[in-house]
Amino acid sequence: MGALTGLKVLDLSRVLAGPWCSQILADMGADVIKIERPKTGDDTRMWGPPWMLDEQDAVTDQAGYFQCANRNKSSVAIDMSSAEGQALLHDMVKDADVVIENFKVGALAKYGLDYETLQNIQPKLIYCSITGYGQTGPRAKQPGYDFVIQGLSGLMSITGEADHLAGGGPQKVGVAVVDLQTGLYAATAILAALWSRDRTGQGQHIDLALFDVQLAALANQGMNYLLTGNAPKRLGNAHPNIVPYQTFDAKDKAFIIACGNDKQFKDLCHAIGRSDLLELPDYSSNQQRVAHRDRLIAVLAQHFLTQDAEYWVSRIDQAQVPVGMINNIAEALAEPQVQARDMVVNIPHPQNKDFKMVASPIKFSKTPIVYPQAPPALGQHTFAVLQHYRDQQQLQSLLAAGVLGSNE
């Protein structure tokens, strides 16, 4: 029994933000039915390479991008543009708790799959819409992709090296961070709406915008601007409010120090053999260190070039000051902590029994996350799910007419 066992979710979304949300719910035990287009399915099914290898190391048609966000779901292929497909979905909504969609504003109304239509069929429905800019406002009709939102929201203006340095200029984050954050916000909002429904008996519409999410996720940087009227600038790997809190080059490679308070700075200085820095009033508090950032960082940078990164990381770690190496993804997933926390899981796939994924980070004491289903093939569960709504003859007729797709 998962924490959300018994919750039924119709997932009409594709790409990343919506599927990320529904995968979170599925990991916690919700019955997530992923509705896909026959023949083509979710856009990300074709976003390869890389592709999964089968047990003979032959390349399959299973894209890694699709797989990262679609485990523990059933795939049902329905042509929602057809009257028969719409009728099927209307029947499925009658016993659904949640619908998740990320179509353009107003696009589902022509299929009778908009909130107004579906809430008349199922008044207790929680309907979550994910769009680039939300259901209202001058940009509401515009398509929104993570990369564009990273730029428009100001995130790229604070990511990357400063313009005057080599390689300077705005940078996007290395994963689709806006999509992922929106998926997290969506899952949180859905659970809150379900809690509200338990008390009021009423469903509701959740309107989530990628742009809104990234504005909210500017966090201290957004607040820094509101307090000062000055737009924050790029500082590379440095922190606008804390010093020293950045990367440093050692003799062999770079490493990270994240010194979060005055005690940690004192412990750092002792650990690296620079207790003399504590005698200077310019470095006596974080406020002073921020004001004299350039001078202090120059001193530390020169000092760290005298030894290898592992030497400094070991000494600083012993002093209980946050410090670490800069891993690539292979090195990160090889960390002993990954094995200790079961953060890579084996989920046997029909084409590869040794298929692995990065696990959910949620650790429940009573209702642990389980992984019963590898990311599904397109239409893998069409008949298994729809047999509750149509008989076999009707399903075969719909399959022949192209309304359904099946891989069963």
UniProtKB/TrEMBL annotation:
Keyword Phosphoprotein set for record: no
Q: Name one Pfam family in it.
A: CoA_transf_3
One example GO MF annotation: CoA-transferase activity
> What Gene3D superfamilies does the annotation carry?
Crotonobetainyl-coa:carnitine coa-transferase, domain 1, formyl-coa transferase, domain 3
Cited InterPro entries: CoA-transferase_III_domain, CoA-Trfase_fam_III, CoA-Trfase_III_dom3_sf, CoA-Trfase_III_dom_1_sf
Alphabetical keyword list: Transferase
Coiled-coil annotation reads none
What is this protein's record name? CoA transferase
Tell me the lineage of the source organism.
Answer: Bacteria, Pseudomonadati, Pseudomonadota, Gammaproteobacteria, Moraxellales
